[in-house]
Amino acid sequence: MQMKLLILSIVVSSCSLANTACAQSAWKAQSIPVTTRWTAAVSPQNALPEYPRPQMVRPQWQNLNGLWDYAITAKDAAAPTTYKGKILVPYPLESALSGVKKSLTPEQKLWYSRTIKKPATETATRYLLHFGAVDWQATVYLNGKKIGDHEGGYQAFTIDITAHFKPGDNHLVVGVWDPSDQGNNPRGKQVLQPRGIMYTSTSGIWQTVWLEAVPEKYIDDLKITPAQNSVTVAVSTNNNEHLTTEVVALTGGTPVASAKGKAGEPLLLSIPNAHQWSPDDPFLYDLSIKLYQDGQLLDSVTSYTGIRTISIQKDEKGQERIFLNGIYTYNLGVLDQGFWPDGLYTAPTDEALRFDILAIKSMGFNTIRKHIKIEPARWYYHCDKLGMLVWQDMVTCANESPAARLIFEKENKENLALLHNYPSIVCWVLFNEGWAKFDQERLTEWMKTTDPSRIINGHSGENYDRRAVTNPNDRWKSSDLTDIHDYPGPGIAPAMPGKARVLGEWGGVQVRVLNHQWNGSEGWGYVSVPPAQFAEKYEFMMKHLKIYEEEGLSGSIYTEPFDVEIEENGLMTYDREIIKIPVEKIRAIHSRIIPATSALAADFKIRDMDTTNPDNRYAGLLETYRKGKKDSLFLKDLALMAVRLNDLTNAQLIATDYYKYMKPPFTRSEWIFIFNMTNSVKDKGFEFIRKYKDAANKNMGTRQADQKLMTIIYNDEISPEISSTKLYPDWNNMFTRTKQYGPAGEEIYMRAKTLYHYNNKEWDKFAPCVTQYIGKYAASLSPEELNRYAITVFYRYTDTSLLMTASGWSQLSLKQGERSSLLFTRANLLYKAGRKQEAITIQERALTLAPEADRKNYEAVLAKMKRNEATW
Fold it and tell me: Is Hydrolase included in the keywords of this UniProt record (predicted)?
């Protein structure tokens, strides 16, 4: 009877959102270039209805997904009294499925509001409000009282709301601030201005929100650690005093092992001849966990586990390899970014979430590297159930500031705890390609100590780290793997004692699939091939990979399973509709490396790509254009086709006809077209960019319009003069020609002149030129460029006034974050200018941040400063 009452209360409360809880008419998915087959299945009544935490299940729960009220205010504003409209939780604000599709800037705050009812239950005395994930800083209010807050865009958090939860209606408000790529917060590949390998931001609630009714003393966490023939389960509660726990492992409902003990203490369940979990056989044991006090049952949950081990061992040839359950297992994987065209960070449905893993397995892979994103719990559950090895990246440190590093370490600790129980996760990946890397050896050791049940990849793609230590033997210290990246590749990492060799990223072959692109005019890849040639190229690359496997490679991660926005390197399209190599063909190719771990799934439905190169139709389409076909979409596609085939004359004619359909203000898609079609000052698009530069920068990203204008002006007006056979360029003539283009012309003129004197070592002309250039355009220069000019002054000049001016440039370069190289430059400039004590203080700071490979040089320079010796 109590269960019936609870279920009834859930049904009633799910339709009691303020004014429009069940009104689907108040919401609709926003338009996007491509959708998935699941987009149309989403509605306010079925927004991710599944139980969100498969590793610790209770039957009594209430899903709070659905329509909420939302508003956007200034960052420091109080909670609003009126709201803008409806948003569908848990789809992020920027997504089409939220019904809003708006960006949140760092100067703004996002607010959610809804009414919740207290469940009618006689056994529960406490009420827990759960958030799967909110990006990035969340503050929660109930009935006007602040009841909790949380920082971190990927970690689940829970608030006990019992003290403020009253019978009847309760007003729940969540305020969210997300600095995206402008703050110290780990954010993966989210940026406010998507480009290249960076994609659209996710702000706000992006995983399920739910309510649980629990007893006064309850189970609040599990830590499940498998071994070869056993599993250890630690059951923590909100109050361990005088409580006992019982854990039973079952298969098919039949108990196979059990253990009892004090709450909070690890319990060992021995399972002789345990059925081990693997991609070939993803067998899982059910777990029943109960909490008692003086023999009385207080609480119970269910869970599961897989019995498996992962280690680095030598094979019969003495090669260090990855071993799963004591057997060498090649990790044939893909680099999965976890983005969706309709939901961004949030899959449209649970079926869609499962489909991605099923698709990757159906193609013959056994491993997924989850790339700098933490997924919802159900993604890992599906990996456990389907049988997929997971390399889990930490979400990259935001920058090199001390504040960002503290947040990175805090979130890493939470990530390891949050994801500990999933048997599919066999490897933690700490750093990637040197991005904001620090204390690699210390943090790798911390990971190994914290979780000895998995292998640790201390640095994936360390060969791409420009600041890597010079001695190869000092790379990947304490890591279980040596890991390189090679595009397109493949390649093989170096052999080192005690470490397996893996290829952490490779591939990146672009294949365009018309009508399945996020933005065809901006799509890119590391290398590009026509559709008809892809299968042959991929098979050729895989044959080379097999050679490396025989030489000792233990794993490889192909970039990537699905296209992501404009990155078109996927084996399948972004909408998950088209596979670029027929599935049976790609399975056969992969079988040279590993046997397929399952038969082709019956529910894996995908269409083969049309391998006819659409550019082959260009001549016929151009003739159709000349005969008068001038509709908008035809002109746009034909102009882009002309550019791809380098028919620039016709490209401009066609683009000019297409421009007649465009009226300002231009959309981002229109700006992308203009940028792609504009390569000369004579092109019509050049005047568009000049006239509406501010709007172009807003759509395309900070200073992108300025950079585009300057590139074109340089190519047309400056490069011919500099590249001529004249002994000395005519700078006066160039100035006359560039000034007609206004600020962009003046800036590129000054930059070109500065770089010309620098590259040609004309130091008498360089100093006054660079001083004038930086004096006017310092705000536009990168820290690296400012540092290059500043260190040049240090080595080339003795004038104290100029040295102090350059130290000012160096100080500007440090505004975006301290780096040892920037501090080194500033210290040396001040020292040469006679500011000894200030220089020593800064050099000491540079030494504390210096990479291991540079420390001896930094120490030597510091010693010279203290001895009053020249450092130049």
Answer: yes
| Residue 7 pLDDT grade (very low, low, confident, very high; cuts 50, 70, 90) | very low
User: Going edge to edge, which strands form the sheet with 61-63?
Assistant: 61-63, 209-214, 126-131, 157-160
Contact 95, 135 (CB under 8 A): no
Per DSSP, 715 falls in state I
Percent of the chain whose pLDDT exceeds 90? 83
3-state helix, strand, coil in the chain (%, to 5): 35, 25, 40
Report the alpha-carbon distance of residue 472 to residue 501 in Å, rounded: 14
Task: Name the β-bridge partners of 327.
Answer: 324
Report how far residue 532's alpha carbon sits from residue 610's, in angstroms, rounded to the nearest whole number: 8
* Other C-beta atoms lying within 10 Å of the C-beta of residue 799: 12
Structure-token match 């994801």, residue found:
419
Digit-coded pLDDT (tens) for 610-652: 888 777 788 899 999 999 999 988 998 899 889 878 898 999 9
The pLDDT score that the predictor gives to residue 137 is 96
Q: Are 69 and 81 in contact (CB under 8 A)?
A: no
- For the chain, the structural domain boundaries read 2-214, 228-305, 328-608
Scan for tokens 């909070």, then name that residue: 264
User: What is the pTM for the complete model shown?
Assistant: 0.81
CB 261 within 8 A of CB 242: no
688 phi, psi to nearest 5 deg: -60, -50
Residue 709 burial (10 A CB sphere; 0-12, 13-18, 19+): buried
pLDDT (average), residues 685-696: 95
What's the maximum distance between 2 C-alpha atoms anywhere in the chain?
97
Give pLDDT, residue 20: 36
pLDDT given for residue 514 in this prediction: 86
- Residue-wise pLDDT for 337-396, tens only, equals 999 999 999 999 999 999 999 999 999 999 999 999 999 999 999 999 999 999 999 999
Q: For residues 180 and 165, what is the distance between their CA atoms, to the nearest angstrom?
A: 33
Entry field: residues in the chain: 872
Q: How far apart are CA 131 and CA 149, in angstroms?
A: 11
Residues 6+ apart with CB under 8 A from 289: 219, 222, 233, 235, 245, 246, 247, 300, 301, 302, 303
Peptide bond before residue 565 is cis, with ω within 30 degrees of 0: no
Q: How far apart are CA 307 and CA 226, in angstroms?
A: 5
Tokens standing for residue 870 = 């020249």
Cα within 13 Å of Cα(256), Cβ side = 18
∠ CA 121-126-131, rounded to 5°: 105
Cβ atoms of 139 and 146 closer than 8 Å: yes
Q: Which residues have CB under 8 Å from 489's CB, separation 6+?
A: 503, 506, 507, 541
Q: Could you please report the per-residue DSSP string of 335-371?
A: EE---BTTTBTS-SSHHHHHHHHHHHHHTT--EEEE-
Q: Report whether 469 contacts 851 (CB < 8 A).
A: yes
Closest CA to 226 of 197, 266, 173: 266
Give the pLDDT of residue 373: 98
* pLDDT band, residue 52 (cuts 50/70/90): very high
Per-residue CA distances from 827 to 818, 833, 838 (Å): 13, 10, 7
| Stronger pLDDT, 609 or 110, i.e. the higher one | 110
Q: Choose between 619 and 552: higher pLDDT.
A: 552
The superfamily CATH assigns to domain 2-214 is: Galactose-binding domain-like (2.60.120.260)
pLDDT for the residue 815: 86
Tokens of 507: 């591939």
Q: 228-305 adopts what CATH topology?
A: Immunoglobulin-like (2.60.40)
d(C-alpha 843, C-alpha 831), whole Å: 10
Check: CATH 3.20.20.80 for 328-608? yes
* Alpha carbon 460 to chain centroid, angstroms: 15
Structure tokens at 851: 């990479």
Strand positions, DSSP E, 487-567 = 500-507, 509-510, 527-528, 553-559
